[in-house]
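Record filed below.
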Amino acid sequence: MSTLAAARADNFYYPPEWEPKKGGLNKFNGQHALRERARKIDQGILIIRFEMPYNIWCGGCESMIAKGVRFNAEKKQVGNYYSTKIWSFSMKAACCRHEIVIQTDPQNCEYVITSGARKKIEEYDAEDAETMVLPVDDDKTKLVDPFKRLEHQEGDMKKKKEAEPVLVRLQRISDSRHSDDYSMNRSLRAKLRGQRKRVAEEEAVSRKSGLGIRLLPVSEEDSAAASCVKFATKFERNRKDKRALIHSTSIFSGSSNSSSSVPDKRRLELEAKRRKINAGTASKLLSGGIKPSSLARASVPSRKKFRA
C-alpha cells in the first residue's frame, strides 16, 4: 500500500503488538468483519442494502415509493420452504419513518409485502405496450393434454405459414444488402464524406455571419415566412414621432394655440432664458466666478432698465 492510512482503511495494517497466535485482525481488534452492519448479528439480523422490487404505496403517508429505491434493511430468516430459506426485510420509509416489512416467497418466486405498505397494481395491454404475451398457467396445463397440445401445434403451424412470406422477403432484403461488403462500405464512406462536407460549409456560413452555431439549410417555407415578417426599427419610430409632432403643431409661430403641449411651453421658456444671459455673465458662470442664484437676481434690474 502507498500510505499507512490506506493500509488501515483496507484492513491490511498489522500493528507491532499483533502475533499470529492471537488470530486474525478482527479477533485481535474485537470487532466483526462487517463492522456496523453486524451490530445485531447475535439476534440473527444483518443490515443490508435492500432495493424495492416494485412500486408500492406507503402505509403511513400514502406516498408512492418507486421501484429501485434502496433502503438500509434488517435481514433475518423467518422460515423455510422445503430447503429454501424465507427471508424477511424490515426497513423505515424515508417519507414518514413508517416501518415496512417484505418477505420472499420461494413458492411463487416473488416478494410479498407483509406489513406497512401495499403493492401498486399496474395493468396494461400487451398490444399497446408492444410486448410479447407470456403463457399463463392455464396455457401451460393445456400443453400436458395430448389433444390440447395437438391443437396448439396446429395453431403454431398456421401462424408460421402466414408469416413465412414476410420472413422470406425480409431475409432476401437482408441478403441483398449485405451480399457485397465492398459496395456497402464504399457507399457508407461516400455518404459520410458528403455529410462532413455539408457540415463544413454550414459552419463556414455561420462564421461568416458572425454566429456561433450551425444553421440549418434554407428552405422555401423559411424564405416565405421571413418575407412576411417586418421589424420596426428605431429609425422608423423616430421618423414617425417627428412627423406626428410636426403635424400636431401650428405653422404660425406667433399665434397662441391653446392645444400646445407642455413640452413645447417648456422649450419656449428655456429659449427665453437663454436670450437673457449675455456673453460676459456666461463666461463668469463657466469659470465659477458667479453663482446661478446671483445670476437670477442680476437679471431682474436689467429687465427693468430695458422696460424703462
